[in-house]
């Protein structure tokens, strides 16, 4: 297996390519999500940005929050600063997670982009489209709460460009706001338990979203035969065989079982699921996510 190059994978380069990808698409029209329950008598349907003065929750202030955004009265009762969030801000928030594990760096040929490069490009392009539509974008963990603006896109590009040494990343739900939306992008070939926990936590908070599985074509076709050395991208696992072709049927069965498991999880939690191959146009995946986030 050959890990292909990741051209122009710096934060600025990634952001520029993502904006180029998003340019042909119409801006995603911001639509406030319907709250789980209407607590005020006579109110039905969606809450929109124009009625966004109702308090929703406090969250811990982050380094990029301005002094003006901090609720000093609430902060005075604790040892840390807090920011007050409104209903409409929560409803128009989308949280992203892109698998930062080493396994996402795989590319079967130098002619194809690594899965990580494609996943980050799609995620940031989606953030560009959402930002143009007036929506707030952040991460599913607590590192980057949802915000709007080009500064937010720059911070997002910086974080998405980071990688970890482990083979597979694990999504975290610490940044999921109730009744918001989320997008998870990964090959979903690692341990499934963190994904199950994430979707369960999301369902408990009324969060819906989309799962995008990004695969290299070789991971679906398994074109290996004869003597082959299989090694994880981190180097932690290594297996050598003289008859790689004998493993094909078992591998494809396990891949089908994993997809069926993901489909069942998505169905049970009200999420959308799709598979994107790195040999395909990134625009097709972006268009699918654009549509999937509008389904509620």
TrEMBL record:
Domain DUF58 intervals: 57-233
Task: Give any Pfam family that matches.
Answer: DUF58
InterPro entries per record: DUF58 (IPR002881)
Provide the protein name. Answer: DUF58 domain-containing protein
């Amino acid at each position: 297996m050959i890990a292909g190059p990741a051209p122009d994978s710096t934060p600025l380069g990634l952001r520029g390519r993502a904006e180029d990808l998003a340019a042909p698409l119409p801006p995603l029209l911001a639509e406030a999500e319907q709250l789980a329950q209407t607590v005020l008598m006579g109110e039905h349907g969606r809450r929109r940005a124009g009625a966004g003065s109702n308090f929703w929750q406090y969250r811990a202030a982050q380094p990029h929050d301005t002094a003006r955004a901090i609720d000093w009265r609430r902060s005075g009762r604790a040892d840390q600063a807090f920011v007050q969030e409104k209903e409409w801000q929560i409803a128009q928030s989308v949280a992203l997670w892109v698998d930062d594990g080493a396994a996402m760096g795989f590319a079967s040929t130098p002619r194809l982009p690594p899965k990580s490069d494609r996943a980050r490009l799609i995620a940031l392009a989606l953030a560009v489209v959402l930002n143009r539509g007036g929506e707030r974008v952040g991460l599913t963990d607590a590192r980057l709460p949802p915000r709007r603006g080009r500064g937010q896109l720059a911070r997002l590009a910086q974080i998405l460009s980071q990688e970890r040494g482990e083979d597979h990343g694990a999504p975290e739900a610490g940044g999921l706001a109730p009744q918001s939306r989320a997008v998870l992008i990964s090959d979903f070939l690692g341990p499934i338990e963190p994904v199950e926990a994430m979707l369960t936590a999301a369902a408990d908070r009324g969060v819906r979203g989309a799962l995008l599985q990004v695969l290299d074509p070789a991971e679906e076709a398994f074109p290996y035969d004869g003597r082959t050395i299989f090694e994880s991208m981190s180097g932690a696992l290594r297996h050598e065989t003289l008859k790689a072709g004998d493993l094909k049927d078992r591998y494809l069965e396990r891949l089908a079982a994993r997809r069926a498991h993901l489909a069942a999880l998505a169905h049970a939690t009200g999420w959308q699921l799709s598979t994107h191959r790195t040999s395909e146009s990134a625009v097709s995946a972006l268009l699918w996510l654009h549509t999937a986030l509008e389904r509620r």
